[in-house]
Design goal:
OB fold (Dihydrolipoamide Acetyltransferase, E2P); 1 helix; DUF5666 domain-containing protein; signal
């Protein structure tokens, strides 16, 4: 009787081990990226080929309702109290939040992605979209206190930090040589589609 019970349980153990290993394999798969940063190499109808900043070739289907925003450079002085901004920061040696780029949203985009979260621009970077409540001008940059619905953060913006804003764009800006940040999703057939593209104007590389 004991022998039969052991014999019967062995297949169940084997099945459980296979299931566990399969689950682990799925869990270890690299997540599908949500954006690609790079240079448009070609546009053919509804298909756009992008060479990413890290060297990969990415083919994207351009959604019929694609939203194209232009990115243009502004100055640090254009960041005012009350501006709604996005700041990519990395931890400084003193624990400060040092900005590596700041983008100022136009009023029509106020509230976009409000909050603070990890970001993939640089190692250990985070993105904070918030309203500037205080701005202190120093000898080598500005210190901003930004507030969002769940908290606040003090951000140091060195003088050499890229500062940009969004302007209306159109699909005609999607042409070879343009520098873009394309937000993408994977379709059921495994291909990728973009319905939102930020494109640098006048040769600008979007810093975000």
């Amino acid at each position: 009787m004991t022998i039969q019970r052991v014999t019967f349980t062995r297949p169940l153990i084997a099945v459980a081990m296979v299931a566990a290993s399969t689950f682990a394999a799925y869990a270890q798969r690299a997540p599908v990226p949500t954006r690609v940063r790079g240079t448009i190499e070609s546009v053919n109808g509804d298909t756009m080929q992008v060479k990413s900043r890290t060297g990969e070739d990415v083919k994207l289907r351009i959604a019929p309702d694609v939203n194209v925003a232009g990115i243009t450079k502004i100055s640090l002085a254009d960041i005012k109290v009350g501006s709604f901004v996005g700041a990519t920061t990395v931890p400084g040696p003193d624990g400060a939040n040092n900005a590596v780029e700041v983008h100022v949203f136009p009023e029509s985009m106020r509230g976009t992605g409000e909050g603070s979260r990890p970001y993939d621009l640089k190692p250990n970077s985070s993105m904070t979209n918030a309203t500037v409540s205080e701005s202190v001008v120093g000898n080598d940059g500005h210190t901003l206190l930004v507030k969002y619905k769940d908290g606040e953060k003090k951000v140091f913006v060195p003088d050499n930090t890229p500062v940009v804003t969004f302007v209306p764009g159109d699909r005609g800006e999607l042409k070879p040589g343009a520098q873009v940040v394309a937000f993408m999703k994977q379709l059921p057939d495994g291909s990728f589609e973009t319905n939102r593209v930020s494109v640098g104007l006048n040769g600008l590389t979007p810093p975000m």
